[in-house]
Amino acid sequence: MGKSKRKAKKSPFIIIIFILIIGICGYLSFNNYTKMSKLKNDNNKKKAEYLVLNKKYNELLKSNKDFSNELEKEKDIDQTIDNSKKEVFELAKKAEENIQNGKTNYKIAYLTFDDGPYYLTHEVLNVLKEKQVKATFFTIGAGKESCIDNRSFNCTLLYKKIVDNGHTIANHTYSHAIFAGLYSSVDNFIRDIQKQEDLIYSKTNVKTNIMRFPGGSSTAKSLKNDIIIKLREKGYGWIDWTAQDGDGGALKTRDQAWNIFTKSINDNIEVVLFHDYNYITYSILPDAIKYLEDNNYIILPLFHDSVMVNK
Fold it and tell me: Is CATH 3.20.20.370 the classification given to domain 90-300?
């Protein structure tokens, strides 16, 4: 009887302990389940992030591959352009020889533009592209980071456009400071040439080897011969001009420019002087090109070996 009472007394205690154990186990199970669910969600989230990153990585790889392919194509294009220019210049050299020897009725005109680039050079390049004509641009560097005819535009960016369009880019000194020290000494002049050469190369990766004296070679006066010797040492040829439209002076009307231009075209090989800042020249340019072509002129860009380039 005593033992039964003791067992009866113990039963509620055992039940309570059992309930507590079940509760603790349930809590632990729920807590573990919550942690497992959170861990699973975190893993799923990280997996999703990984998939996104992996996709971006693959896209980046493809982009880099495409870029590399485009870069190789660009190199091929540059090489093709260089080879084409070389072939054109070789043919032009033969054409000059045939013209001088009277073996052809064709003539050659070299269109040249001085003192640029300017913002207007955009439009000049558009005309040349439309007419499928290549020209030569004798460029300067002073003040070109802010175009005179559009202060918000950096004109040195046009060096690359000139080259990319297949034209010859040439050296007209950096400063063009005819009355401000350019011709004060041979060394000063050559430094100015070098400065412009460096600028052109930095913008285009092209090393120029043709130059024009600002104001023409006669402007160098007593320094001319010594300057030419130094230019020769640097591998430069130099050139003046044989025809023009007068846009370097006080040109007032289109008719005036047209008359000067047409009257100056007399030789079988012409070097035409224009300026790509002049709106009158821009206005007559399409007609000037047509006039030359109608008179049997082939219009070409200058090259170092041309008979017209003094070396």
Answer: yes
